[in-house]
Amino acid sequence: MEITMDYYTRDNCALCSEGLLQINLALQELRNVNLNLRQFNIDEDDVLQEKYMLRIPVLMHEGEVVQEGVIDFVQVYDYIRSETGN
Q1: What residue ranges define each of the domains in the chain, with the CATH number in brackets?
Q2: Measured between alpha carbons, how far is 86 from 80 in angstroms, rounded to an integer?
Q3: Which of 3, 71, 72, 85 is 20 to 30 A removed from 20 (C-alpha atoms)?
Q4: What Gene3D superfamilies would the database entry show (predicted)?
């Protein structure tokens, strides 16, 4: 099963790096899920920076915020599992 998600980050963001690690850990448990993770650096786009500056990292799926601020394994795992039927 494939799922596409958007991940809004910025350079030198420890929470963003930790969030990416949590996403990858969740994917290791969901072996039959192929995640297309589109990453966006908010510092490269004024509109994104204004929208997400105080919220990053932000993980979204189909325009819905899955999690923001602190990304954790359980939330990511449960969300992807429910969306993919695993």
Answers
A1: 2-84 (3.40.30.10)
A2: 8
A3: 85
A4: Glutaredoxin
